[in-house]
Amino acid sequence: MGSQTSTHLFRIDGEDLYLQEFSIQDAHRIYEISNEPEIAEFLPDWKTTKDQRIKWITNYEIPGNKAFLNDAANLSDKDHHILKLGIFIKQTDEFIGWCCTGIKDELPFPNREIMYAISSSYQKKGYATRASKALIHYLFTHTKMETLNTVALTNNSASHSVIKKCCFIYRGERMIENERYYHYTLTKGEWEKKHK
Domain residue spans in the chain? Predict the structure, then answer.
């Protein structure tokens, strides 16, 4: 499912979209989307200036992605590598959001999380669900990871809908940075039962 494109960027193919590792060319769109009020409300840590975003992509996100991909086949729940992928519409190659995985320190081990964001112009069209399912499939078939987590603010009903469509199981409420979140997990075994 994962592949290298002619530009040597890692890509996960989906139905009408693909996930692709961040590049410098994506910085402007990430900046724009992360500053949309609907995104900034739920993901305030992603809000940056254009210069900050370029520095983060150059110095952290591109090297972090390369480290994840170099070690992917051997990565397990205990590894701290991060993978940040842009979500693109196949027909137009338009960058519409991101889908990522990394360690969520506020959760108990095993605490690998997946998260996503979709530009407000493309919400409520199923892109977040399809992108998340593509990343979950990749993680459970190309790494040694056994458990994935996700959290969403209790008032983020759109995210709860996506999370349930991806077969995550509700595990309770958690307080993170003085905000109330619903916490969900999905194990490889649970995922395999749903995909036989």
Answer: 2-194
